[in-house]
Structure formats: C-alpha cells, structure tokens
Design goal:
binds ligand PMH, Lyase, Ornithine Decarboxylase, Chain A, domain 1, 27% strand, alpha/beta, elongated, 11 helices, TIM Barrel
Length: 369
C-alpha cells in the first residue's frame, strides 16, 4: 500500500509500467494461446504483492502464484478475484478455506485427502510432479496413478492443472533440463483426462525453452525486470526493464581530518581530509553489511560506502561538499551512471532474486505507473 507520509527520505520506487512491459513483451515472444501466471510470492519478490498483482492482471496475466496459504488469503482479503495458485505445501486444514475462497492448492500426496472433510465448494488442485528439483512433488508414476484415482473418487475436487519445476533452466548446460522435461511428459500420460492447465516454465525456460511452455508459464524474476542468471542475460529475446530502484538523501555532511575513523570497529580511517556523508539506510532496511564498499550515486557520480554499515545508517566518502537533502540513488540511474540489482548481487556473491526480497518493510514502496 502506498504510504501516505514518511519522514525518512529512504524509499524504493516500483515502476509498474516496467512490470507490465515485461509481461507484454513475454506475451509477444510466446504463442498467444500461452497464459502468464504472475509469480507474486514473497510480497511480489519484495516489490509489493497487491500492486504487482493488479498490474500483472491489467495486462492479461491469467493467474497469480504465491508460496503460502497466508499469501493467497491476503490477496483475497485485499480484493483480488483472479485465480490464485499456492505453489508450496498447504496443510489439509486449509482445504475448506481454499475452496471457499477459490484458491487453487498444490497437491502431491494421496494422504492429504484422508484429512479433509467434504468441501463446501469445488476445490481446484494442481498436481506437482518432482522431475528432478528434489523439493516437492510426486516422484513415481505409481504414486501419481494412486493420487489421480484418489482425487477422482471425490466430487468436490477438480484436477485443474499439473506442473513441475526446473532446477537448471537458467544454465547453459541443458542436460538436466531436458531430462526433467522428458520425465514430465512421461508422467503426463497417466492422466485419463488432460488437465486444463499444464505448466513447467519459470522465467528462464519461458524466455529460452519454447518446448517447455505447454499452457502457461510461471513468470517470476523476469517480470520484475531481472535476469535469472548471467547466462540468460546473454540470451534474452527482448530487453527486460528493472522495476525497482532505491533512493535516499544525504542527512548529514562533515569534513573529517586525515586519521579520523568512521563507524563501528573503526575499520575505516580517512587518509586525507575528506568529506563524509551520512545516509539514513542500513542493514535493518536490507542494505546488508557485506555491501560496505559498494558505490552509491550522488550528483551523477559513484561514491563508495565506507566503514561498517550500521543498522539504520551508513557513511559515504564524497569527492566534495554536497548539501543536506542531496538525492542519493542506491539502485537505479542518476545521470549517465547506473547501479543495478545485479551489481549488488555480485558484490555480496548472491543472486539477484535475494536483493529485493530482503528489502525490509521499513522501506516504503512508492508506485509509479
Ligand atoms: N514456480 C515455482 C514453483 C517457483 O518456486 C518459482 C521461483 C517460480 C515458478 C518462478 O521462477 P522465476 O522467478 O525464476 O521466474 N522460486 C524460487 C525459489 O524458490 N527460490 O528462488 C526462486
């Protein structure tokens, strides 16, 4: 939700147009019959589940996917009426609520159905097949046959879909991907009737593997404008637009003399007389301590974060005095310079997915469209 007011000038800007363009470009890239399932789990990868859901639905996403029952209920309570799929495990105790709220759940165990009562409304389920991710899903063909039989004995449950998830779709070597796809096709033969929605592709497969598209793709990271991996980044069929940028302002500026130390542990010592700015953002906002040394943009130039990043603040070495209130771009463009989420990810040796996800609730999300 858009904050009405905030007194600290630190915020993330989410450009919903970029999200819409990424979906529209993907739709153009695929056969038009293929549907887009917008993956909005983990608060829309940190971008805001409700706002991203609305934007995705506006440009024709046909379903939303979340990780947990609670994430699905939250969207319903906020008024989202589209189909919602819970990708993770739902407990049997959620079945009644899921059917009442038209929430589609993922199933992969016959026993799950022993624990649910007769349901008030028909419950849509998608069967998950584990073809090699080793996380959730039916692992053998006989288990799948038993599960289908169990469901067919119930008039209150409908097999609306079947899916699997790739472990290596973003890698150059396609061996595991191909083996998972082959296994999935073998498992599909056990369905007496073809479920309405067969889906396997995440962003990487949706962008690069046309034979994995079936009826729908689960578009996550690249909907937010980020590449699943460096390999996919080199093979993109269309440019992605990064939706999130991160901003703050200088709240304090001082000139220190050579020898002055900065921040906890006194790990940074000024070599010369230096101008130092304090920024109101720290690790409790998701600006992790390992980002010490990362550049920020001030007046269109890169300036390094120096010393340890504190819980709520960090310090930057300037190349001259700047006024209090000077805008700072932590992620995004300023002038001809740009700092991407990928740059942060490389700096702390992680994947781009993790950066927006760990941006905490304290950072207001401001939406532009
Ligand atoms: N489908 C499932 C089952 C997923 O777990 C994910 C992402 C997606 C689709 C979307 O993938 P994409 O963001 O690469 O497009 N899940 C995760 C995860 O569990 N950890 O990182 C990404």
């Amino acid at each position: 939700m858009q904050p009405t007011n905030f007194y600290r000038p630190t915020f993330a800007k989410i450009d919903l147009n970029e999200i819409k363009m990424n979906i529209l470009n993907l739709k153009k890239h695929m056969n038009e019959s293929i549907q887009v399932i917008a993956v909005v789990k983990a608060n829309g990868y940190g971008h805001g589940d409700f706002e991203v859901s609305k934007a995705a639905l506006q440009v024709g996403a046909s379903m939303l996917a979340v990780a947990t029952p609670d994430e699905a209920i939250r969207l319903r309570v906020l008024g989202i009426e589209s189909p919602i799929l819970v990708l993770g495990a739902s407990p049997p105790t959620f079945a009644v609520l899921a059917s009442e709220h038209d929430i589609t759940v993922t199933v992969f165990q016959q026993d799950w159905f022993l624990h649910i009562p007769t349901l008030p409304k028909k419950l849509n389920v998608h069967i998950k097949i584990d073809t090699g991710m080793g996380r959730l899903g039916v692992t053998t063909e006989s288990e799948l046959r038993c599960l289908i039989q169990t469901i067919h004995q119930r008039s209150d449950v409908l097999i609306d879909g079947v899916f699997t998830h790739f472990a290596t779709a973003d890698e150059e070597n396609t061996e595991q991907f191909t083996s998972q796809l082959t296994k999935f096709k073998t498992f599909l033969k056990h369905f007496p009737e073809r479920p309405r929605c067969i889906h396997t592709a995440n962003s990487a497969a949706a962008l690069m593997q046309k034979d994995s598209l079936f009826d729908a793709v689960r578009f996550g990271i690249s909907m937010y404008g980020l590449s699943p991996s460096a390999h996919v980044s080199n093979e993109l069929p269309f440019p992605l637009g990064q939706a999130m940028t991160l901003h703050t302002e200088v709240v304090f500026v001082k000139k220190v003399t050579a020898g002055t130390t900065i921040s906890y542990g006194a790990t940074y010592t000024a070599e010369n007389d230096e101008w130092i700015a304090t920024l109101p953002i720290g690790y409790a906002d998701g600006m992790l301590r390992k980002l010490s040394g990362q550049a920020v943009l001030i007046q269109g130039k890169r300036m390094p974060i120096i010393g340890r990043i504190c819980m709520d603040q960090c310090m930057v070495r300037l190349n001259g005095q700047v006024p209090i209130g000077e805008p700072v771009v932590l992620i995004g463009r300023q002038g001809s310079e740009q700092i991407t989420i990928e740059e942060w990810a490389q700096k702390i040796q992680t994947i781009s997915y993790e950066i927006p996800c760990v941006l905490t609730n304290r950072v207001p999300r401001i939406y532009t469209s």
